[in-house]
Amino acid sequence: MPYKIVVVDDDPSMIAAIRNILISADMKAVPMTSGKVLLDFIEVQSADLILLDVVMPEMDGFETLTALREKEKRLGKKEIPVIFLTAEDNRFIETKALELGAMDFIKKPFVPEILTLRVTRCIELITLQNELTTEVKKKTKENEQLFLGIVKSLAAAIDAKDTYTNGHSVRVAEYSREIARRAGYDDDMQQRIYITGLLHDVGKIGVPDAIINKEGKLDDAEYGIIKMHPEKGSRILKNIKEMPELTIGARWHHERYDGKGYPEGLAGDKIPEEARIIAVADSYDAMTSNRSYRRGMPQEKVRSEIEKGKGSQFDPFFADIMLQMIDEDTNYEMREKDNEERLQI
């Protein structure tokens, strides 16, 4: 398919000359006499490249390019590369053109072969950049999926230590991601909170199974060992240099909003937001899941406990979001089940 080149110039004779050059090089030329016509064109169509005159009445080339980029952004379209054309021999004009993001700058009059070559090279460069960007995104996605698979396997290994918490880490991660979504976090942050939630209990790897699976109340010594798992988890995850934020959920998900939690007794906004989100999700899943000493609590009781913990155990903002999720869950689906149904979000 031939390249589509938009030619914007207020001089009809110049447009005709450029059009003939492009057609002879097997390119499609779309002539336009003003920046306004170009902006209307972009509303419904696109092009491989724009040849844009600098000196034009009403809107000059610089104003046109600025308006073009704003419209492309508003419409969610890729930026079309622009080469400026001008008869002016002015360093300021050339500098400004490049500062505005022009790919190249060609002075009139020009040699036809040079114009064709520079247009072709410019399009080839943009095409190569787009292909490289696509390939990088593809590889990044593959690496993310591989990493997520490893994290999920690790989370499953953590949960497997506790007979009564099968799927706990996945549920906490899903609840946390949904809280983050409703709180207005972007997709990247939601995913980071999800991964952080998956690994929030990684420190339990270092806790003896006999303590984790003990039926009945822990004694002070045993509880002291359990309380060490946030710091252990933080030390384990600190080795993942590429995602230092992973330590946040593991280290501080047992902090309380009133400062009476552990391991550091942080309070209020001094507790990282990710940890405050995970704290609500973790407590919710603990109350809705079966334990050796009790069945999962009734939904009304869980709601009452979350409400009671607002401002003391939980950040009020994130607790309110959790309460909203509970109120919408009219069939009490958002909990541990024998067939391990997942929260659909």
Concise synopsis of the structure shown:
The protein has 345 residues and is an alpha/beta fold.
Question: What does this protein look like?
Answer:
With 345 residues, the chain is of the alpha/beta class. It folds into two domains: 4-133, Response regulator (Rossmann fold, 3-Layer(aba) Sandwich); 161-328, Hypothetical protein af1432 (Orthogonal Bundle), CATH 1.10.3210. Helix content is 55%, strand content 7%. It has helices at 12-24, 35-44, 61-75, 91-99, 112-160, 168-182, 187-198, 209-212, 220-226, 229-237, 246-252, 273-288, 299-309, 316-328, and strands at residues 4-8, 28-32, 49-53, 82-86, 104-107. It has a five-stranded parallel sheet with strand order 2-1-3-4-5, with helices on both faces. β1 (4-8), α1 (12-24) and β2 (28-32) form a beta-alpha-beta unit. α6 runs antiparallel to α7. The chain is elongated and about 90 Å long.
CATH architecture of the largest domain: Orthogonal Bundle
Give the fraction of residues assigned to helices: 55-70%
What form results from the Cα inertia axes?
A: elongated
Q: Which spans of ≥5 residues are poorly predicted at pLDDT below 50?
A: 339-345
What is the tally of beta strands?
A: 5
